[in-house]
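Practice problem 4.
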């Protein structure tokens, strides 16, 4: 067994197995515009991350020991590559590196530490990791990679469930059904906000829904997003990290998951969510989990997952560096008051993208350096404020600042 100390002092290349391009039928990738011809791939020689410029790093994780009812997800990375490598690189010059697959450790905790350390180093180098798991329990080490950054984290999870289950003894294990509880109870707590996109009520424990409400977390039911996928854009725009469970997509569009349901997001909606994620200037890691190739009829799910990653990359290279008030001349400020005059609400609109933010003031004495917190919002939130009412997003954000 390898202990945590020795893991921390291993070189990054020690965690990975190279990509076997021959096994992935390279004859299919003969076009100069294909992804495989426009990426740096660890096929035996580990890329130099210090002297080469990369924007995105593709990472496979060969781990599914804690993927509940979905064994086979460890095979996902290469099944994904088989389809992803065939896609056109698009209209942007992409600086993408495929580091290969993180090997499963002797114990699952070894895999977690390896993934955490890899992500820490990549994020520190300003390289955005794109993780292909593996079980969704890998969200926990993805989150733990932010521990040494000493900053609050906004986590967005696309999932039909709230993964907060306890075992029969009432204790919490790090599994694909319980990793959120591990994140919520971790000390020190540096989670500022959690958002769920796409939960389905019949899968959700009502006590867990009350916990979300008590903690002022943002949860968005699948039904409220049906036909209105644009509503998720400000939620996605607020994330530092994203975890996408493939079971959030309906079975007919992504059958390669043992927990897939008849209901869920359509494939094109999943791709739109991924493009929103790519366009988020503050997002620094994204993970796609629970794809199980052994259940993937006609390789439909691997094709969809490859397209989702493609849309993320397309969004990444379409970023606008749309950071509010930098410079001020690129933004318009709107002010309005509640009906009772108790509170002035301030909104910021980007002239470049027409995107909106809301200023939520810090309670007195809680922040010496900043007077307000900026939270992405919709034009509809501004309309609510103009009518004299308090937007729910403003109130929930203020409660988290207290």
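Answer key:
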């Amino acid at each position: 067994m390898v202990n945590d100390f020795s893991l921390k002092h291993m070189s990054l290349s020690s965690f990975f197995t190279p990509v076997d391009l021959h096994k992935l039928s390279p004859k299919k990738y003969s076009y100069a515009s294909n992804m495989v011809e426009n990426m740096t791939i660890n096929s035996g020689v580990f890329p130099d991350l210090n002297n080469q410029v990369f924007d995105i790093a593709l990472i496979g994780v060969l781990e599914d020991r804690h993927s509940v009812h979905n064994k086979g997800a460890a095979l996902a990375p290469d099944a994904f590559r088989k389809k992803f490598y065939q896609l056109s690189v698009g209209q942007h010059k992409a600086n993408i590196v495929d580091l290969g697959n993180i090997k499963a450790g002797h114990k699952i905790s070894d895999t977690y530490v390896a993934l955490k350390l890899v992500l820490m180093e990549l994020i520190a180098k300003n390289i955005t990791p794109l993780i292909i798991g593996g079980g969704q329990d890998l969200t926990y080490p993805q989150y733990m990679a932010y521990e040494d950054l000493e900053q609050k984290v906004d986590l967005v999870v696309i999932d039909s469930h709230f993964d907060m289950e306890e075992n029969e003894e009432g204790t919490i294990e790090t599994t694909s059904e319980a990793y959120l509880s591990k994140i919520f109870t971790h000390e020190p707590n540096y989670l500022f906000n959690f958002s769920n996109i796409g939960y389905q009520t019949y899968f959700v424990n009502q006590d867990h829904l009350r916990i979300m409400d008590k903690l002022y977390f943002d949860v968005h039911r699948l039904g409220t997003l049906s036909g209105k996928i644009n509503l998720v854009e400000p939620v996605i725009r607020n994330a530092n990290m994203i975890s996408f469970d493939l079971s959030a997509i309906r079975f007919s569009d992504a059958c390669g998951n043992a927990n897939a349901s008849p209901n869920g997001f359509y494939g094109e909606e999943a791709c739109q969510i991924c493009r929103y994620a790519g366009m988020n200037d503050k997002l620094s890691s994204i993970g796609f989990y629970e794809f199980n190739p052994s259940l993937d009829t006609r390789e439909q799910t691997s094709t969809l997952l490859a397209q989702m990653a493609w849309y993320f990359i397309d969004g990444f290279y379409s970023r606008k560096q749309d950071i509010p008030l930098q410079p001020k001349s690129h933004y318009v400020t709107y002010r309005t008051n509640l009906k009772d005059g108790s509170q002035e609400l301030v909104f910021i609109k980007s002239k470049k993208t027409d995107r909106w933010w809301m200023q939520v003031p810090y309670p007195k004495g809680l922040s010496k350096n900043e007077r307000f917190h900026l939270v992405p919002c919709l034009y509809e939130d501004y309309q609510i404020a103009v009518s004299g009412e308090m937007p729910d997003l403003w109130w929930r954000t203020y409660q988290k600042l207290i």
